[in-house]
Amino acid sequence: MEQAQADQAFFDLQPQLLAWSREWLQQLGQRPVARPDDPSPPELALPGQGLGLAGVWQAFCQDLAPGFNASPGPRYLGFVTGGVTPAALAGDWLTAVIDQNVASAGNSIATGVELQVLDWLRQLLDLPEGLVGSLTTGATAANLLAMVCARQHAGWRQGRDIARDGIGPAAIRVFSATPHASSLKVLGLVGLGREQIAAVPCLPDSEAMDVAALAAMLAASPEPGKIVIASAGTVTGTDFDDLTAIAALCRQHQAWLHVDGAFGLFSRLDPSRHGWTAGIELADSITCDGHKWLNVPYDCGIFFTPHADLLQQCCSVAAPYLEMHDSLPALMDRGIEQSRRFRALPLWFSLLAYGRDGMRHIVEENCRQASALAEWLQASPDYELLKPPRLNVVIFRPRHAEAMAVLTRLNAAGEVFMTPGVWQGQKGIRAAFSNWRTEASDVVRVCQALARASQA
Known about the structure:
Layout: H1 3-26, H2 52-64, H3 86-98, H4 110-124, E1 132-136, H5 139-156, H6 162-165, E2 172-176, H7 181-189, E3 198-199, H8 211-220, E4 225-231, H9 243-253, E5 256-260, E6 285-289, E7 301-305, H10 308-315, H11 344-379, E8 383-387, E9 393-398, H12 403-412, E10 419-423, E11 426-432, H13 440-455
Parallel strand pairs: 2-3, 2-4, 4-5, 5-6
Antiparallel strand pairs: 1-7, 6-7, 8-9, 9-11, 10-11
Helix pairs in contact: 3-11, 4-11, 5-7, 5-10, 8-9, 11-13, 12-13
């Protein structure tokens, strides 16, 4: 492949790339929100002689483009999925162009930019100074960093360097009330075991932890290594654990306190909800996602801890070719990957373009939209609201039909996409608002789609 010709082929294709991208973004509101038919790519053999960039572009437009859903659009209410702000899109586009590896400092501005972005995020979320962190692929990787640090802390409580020597005979117990699925996955990955978690009871009609029950369980636990996973906004009920009380118990029992704030942490942007996460400044580790409410592209998770020494012990591996001395830290010593994408740049663009006020506006609007949907559901004879929304998630069920049957019809119509949910043992439908593009008119269309789905 001759360099000049390859570059020229890309330059020649740019107008078509831009035109397709413009059309895609402009038509998000009209495209099918989901593709329940689960389209498959065509069966193509790997060519010996390539098609060239122009040929690949033709194949993309013909064979792949029709199969994508409009998940960045305003009525994709499944999981907790943000869209992509224009500023974040510009930053992501340039990330691929400049292709920086932020493993180590010393030969690019990229490390400094990521450190700046992490500090902006700390300020945005009103977190204490002195935190260090990393940008990860998402909540799972961020929670993985939290658990390896927590495991290391629990090991030192027993005189053992687990990152160096392995878990061995170390005795560690994890306590949580409503852990996210990614936390359970991580417990398996780090050797603590998905089924070994000590399930703390929840408060009545809530997913929030019963602090009195936690106190009793910690006092009765013989394990010297203790880890508590608390929630700042649970997945379905968006309930918040009492972090101040839990932190006090963790200090008393020398337990590590991890706070999973995947999307609920951004409630701190709303002055009326800021107090829900009081005590988070006492946490040993904190995680959240940028590709949720910050509306930057996949993938972007965020990890913070005040324990830089433990993070370094877990992530730093010496090798002669990695000895790059610089005044800034090597980010590969604070994260999972030795090499990774410059995922700070979309955040840098978006945070600088919209500021704290712009991010707060997204949170407040999405919460208003969730409340509007809940009001419609309460007035509808066809649906039952299972819990009034506190934040951006609405959980409900049909009154006269099976929830999955209605959900299947709803998603198949292509107007909106939602996912299953369970509240207090009742199967229902879950809608999560987290996209900057969603407007009041979209909520109206969602309600109309629900009305049609209930009558089918």
